[in-house]
């Protein structure tokens, strides 16, 4: 039996307004009526559907059950009171927990894919230092350019660094940290700088510099000696928190000089070119 009511009555909404309030389409409300899920009894004098408070409350319950993934047939039994709501919801909760776990794994996979894309993106030295914890000293960067900006090594370094990806920088920073730790371990263990192990660390140090510009034994000797008088380099190699050790710079200089001699370069006459 259909009841007559005016749309202007308090709490009575036409199908369009009801759909907007519930966040569904008019077509959805008509489908629910067709299958007996939500059949408003009230009509206007012109025969148009009217949704009153009881209809809207039922619709809200339907939406909740639909949101957790229950099929419409089960939802009808629940809203009609013909089924145990708690049993159905408990089952659906288990399914939602499984879905949430799957979504977390998917989010992790997407994050990994985004990181992989970022690792292939070109990145400046400044961005890389900030991202991977190398720090960035604007004053030192300007000083370096003033000191070596007109050299071939500087131009070579700028060219190589311009094409580096985040993955390249990550590898370089990790490699440098490993060298600092290796020198620290050597100092703490009392290793002889003029030994196979010491010359091996010197070779790793030289290779790390060569990632920026060509580094001969002579250039490496000059650079290592420069570390002695620069507190910034000393802090880098002797910071125990990063695996360094007091005396690491002096040990590195000795290892570099020993490595140079072993390769036919006299440290006392070493030059840049």
Which CATH first-tier class of the largest domain would you pick?
Answer: Mainly Alpha
Q: How many domain regions? A: 3
Main sheet attributes: strand count, strand direction, barrel closure: 3 strands, mixed
Q: Low-confidence stretches at least 5 residues in length (pLDDT < 50)?
A: none
Class by alpha and beta content? mainly alpha
Tell me the name of the CATH homologous superfamily of the largest domain.
Answer: Antibiotic binding domain of TipA-like multidrug resistance regulators
Distance between the termini: 102 Å
Element string (H = helix, E = strand): EHHEEHHHHHHHHHHH
Average pLDDT: 81
Radius of gyration: 37 Å
Q: In total, how many beta strands?
A: 3
The shape is rod-shaped
Strand content: under 5%
CATH-scheme architecture of the largest domain: Orthogonal Bundle
Helix content: 55-70%
